[in-house]
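Example record

One chain of 429 residues, shown exactly as stored in the release files.
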Amino acid sequence: MIEILRYTFILLCLSILGWGIIRVERIYQFPTFMASIFVMFIWPQINSLISAPDGVTEEMIERIIIMSCLCVAMCWIGYCSSPNRQLLQRLNTTLDEDKLTQAASALTVLGLFSFYLTGQVARTLQAGVQWTGRATIFAFFTQLSTLGFAIFLMLLLRRFTLVRLTGTVIAGSPLWQSIFQGGRRQATVTFIIIIGMTLWFVKRWAPPRLIIIPATYLGIYVIPLYGQLRGKFWTLLLARDWETLNETSDQMMQTMDRGGILELRNAAFAMDYASRFGQYEYGADYWNGFVFQYVPGQLLGYDFKASLMLPTTGFSSLNYYNYEFPLGTTWTGIGDTYLQFGFFGCLIFGLMAMLFKNLWVSANTYNSQVAFLLMANLASPAMVSVSHGTVRFVQEAIFNILVVALVFQFCKTKKFNKQRFSDDFFTNK
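Predicted structure tokens for this chain:
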């Protein structure tokens, strides 16, 4: 049964990737980039879990793979929904480019200041300890410079000016530092996604379709290698030290094959406990994530903040199996959605797909700058939700929607032009 489920999962992923390369614009659509991250992150972990279960039973593995199949399938099924006409109408508003430049400048300044403060606070924190308080606030507001980078790049590709070029370089500096010095995978994905989507949105340029499958396959090896080496990855790459890169890659793959530390093992035990005792969280983790991120304990008091938190069973359930949650690992999006609602948790990915379908139609068909900015800045958190959990996506989605809404109100030049939307665009394309 496990073998049937394993190959069902990869067949689903490859089918969606096949759909994505048939038409060039589908490379940047939600099902395609989500299927690619499922292949790059979840597929190797499934194989490792099967070959080295280390206490995980066949029933647990089957549950993991079934949930993985449901989640990746919902990325496609949710995307097949028709977009919301009222939402498209609200997004279809012209933005003033001079005001956009001002907004991007303000976002960049605030983001860079937050990036600087994050670095100052980080030096005082103990390594390996979860950030709280000021550190999380400053780190979270660093995202503002990423949005500023997306706006400046969009304006630069529309019309070259020295101001826009300078703004693009400065706004992108935190991303580049995180990529080349910190070796951060999410920063790398964010940078690539924003560049790619902006080139398509403004210039209708996309990379050759046939590189998607090879790039996805390469990512299976590069993602763990990149995470292991961090900033040293680029140093070795630029020095063309292929021997060290190959040796490190082989060591990482051998560690994964032996079952080492697997996020899916975390998920397997927690999912089994939730299923066995009916201890689902029913959205509590999403609420706790919201409270953790948006309720300032410094102002309202940490006791008050703690009182708003709902009880969860994720970590405590592991004691039942005498299993310790490895530091620096996650539940994955497979695990955290199941912990909330059982197999129905896969609908979270369906809701994400519906959101991206609306943004894609609005940006690609009606040239909505607001929809493009949201889509470009949410694509990376959506992909990271597979590896790190959907709670993180919800946190970043709320933040980005609020900030883009403020930019929208500041920069809009006129109300929606009441053109008639063609019914052709309310079907899956």
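Notes: DSSP finds 22 helices and no strands in the chain.
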